[in-house]
Each structure stands twice: as C-alpha cells, then as structure tokens.
Design brief:
The strands form two sheets. This protein has a five-stranded mixed β-sheet. The protein has one domain. It is of the alpha+beta class. The protein has four helices and seven strands, in the order βαββββααβαβ. It is globular and about 50 Å long. It comes from Pectobacterium polonicum.
C-alpha cells in the first residue's frame, strides 16, 4: 500500500459491522455477443447470458434471456467482509485489460458498472473505500454503485 498513517479503517477481512459483501462488474454489450467481452478482456466471466438463450432458474422455471450480459463477481471468489478486498479483486482481474475495457467503453450500446453490495451486521457502520480503490476505478473509468442494506432488528 503506502505510508499514510492517518487512516481510521485498516483492512479487516472480518470487518465487524459487515454481515456479507461482494462486488460485481456488470457489462451489458448491446448487440455484441457477450463472448466477445471475454475475448477483449481476456477474462472468463463468473456468469454470461446471451439474448435469445433459454435459461432455467433454481426452481425449474425456464425463460428466454432478453438482454445479453457479462458478469464478473467476487462472490464465492473472495473470502472477506471488507469491501475493499472485493473491489481489489475486480481491479486485479482487469489489470491487464485496459485496452479491451476502453474499447468496450467507446462502443455504442455497451453499458457497464461496478456494483457493490454490503449488508450491515448491526444496523450501523458502512463500507470503506481508500483512495487506492477510488483512483484505480477512476483510471479504469468505471462507475461504482453501492447497494447498502441494513437489516431490521428482530
């Protein structure tokens, strides 16, 4: 990392206020087949769906995919309750793919976002990002959406 000593929140894989978290790079390729994303980025997605394909969900219902999508998720790939670790995993996966990512970003009809989900364990606290994650996302021209959930007291 760096020599900054003033940070309140050290990296903690057992982040006490977090129940669960993950990060997901979602790319919607428009008219492009999602397999082309894998080739451009030289990354295998954790999930991929092509428009027109039929998929069956966990309860046995089959439906036709309307919108192609390509997903790279830290869920089940990163063992940490610190969102920074999940974002770093996505950033690391993209580290050798800057030109492919840029090509996708300038392609008409392609949309993408880094979606982060964070569930509070106690109804307070929240995820922490350091300047390193923010700078890396800015350098990649990736927007970051945070979905934060606070569970009601039972």
């Amino acid at each position: 990392m760096n020599s900054i000593q003033s940070r309140l929140n050290t990296v903690a894989h057992d982040f006490q206020t977090c129940l669960e978290c993950h990060a997901l790079l979602a790319i919607y390729p428009g008219e492009m087949h999602p397999d082309k994303i894998s080739k451009l980025l030289n990354i295998e997605p954790t999930e991929i769906f092509a428009a027109g394909d039929e998929i069956t969900n966990s309860i046995g219902r089959t439906r036709k995919v309307n919108i192609s999508s390509w997903f790279l998720s830290s869920e089940n790939n990163v063992e940490s309750k610190d969102l920074r670790a999940h974002i770093d995993w996505i950033i690391d996966k993209l580290s050798a793919s800057h030109s492919g990512l840029r090509e996708l970003q300038i392609t008409s009809g392609v949309k993408m976002s880094l979606r982060c989900v964070w569930w509070s364990a106690y109804g307070d606290g929240g995820p922490v990002l350091w300047p390193e994650q923010m700078k890396a996302l800015a350098d990649l021209d990736l927007e970051c959406a945070l979905n934060i959930y606070f569970m009601p007291d039972e």
